[in-house]
């Protein structure tokens, strides 16, 4: 039986499920820890609302690669057309609509 280890602590259930989906697309089984505490929003400390993502130890290296790609996709970027700084979740420039080449 392969043991599970914590890969990441997502700030909320939405982020946890997005990462879980990305990992499972790569064949990595994921267990979520603490998801049920999301109902305590406003009554529990913020860090108790984090959701842990657990993966099998043998998939840790592969899972870390997926996690790295996830974080890189959220990095801010500068529009090559107008120079505007955009948050990483934008695929097009919010100012001029330019779609950068990747």
Automatic annotation (TrEMBL):
A molecular function (GO) term: zinc ion binding
Keywords linked to the UniProt accession: Metal-binding, Zinc, Zinc-finger
Domain of life: Bacteria
InterPro entries linked to this entry: DUF2007 (IPR018551), Znf_RanBP2 (IPR001876)
Coiled coil: none
Residues covered by the RanBP2-type domain: 77-96
Protein's recorded name: DUF2007 domain-containing protein
């Amino acid at each position: 039986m392969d043991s599970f280890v914590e890969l990441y602590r997502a700030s909320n259930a939405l982020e946890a499920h997005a990462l879980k989906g990305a990992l499972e697309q790569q064949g990595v089984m994921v267990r979520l820890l603490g998801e049920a505490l999301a109902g305590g929003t406003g009554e529990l400390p913020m860090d108790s609302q984090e959701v842990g993502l657990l993966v099998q130890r043998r998939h840790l290296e592969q899972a870390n690669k997926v996690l790295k790609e996830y974080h890189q996709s959220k990095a801010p970027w500068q529009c090559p057309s107008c120079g505007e700084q955009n948050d990483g979740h934008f695929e097009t420039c919010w100012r001029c609509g330019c779609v950068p080449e990747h």
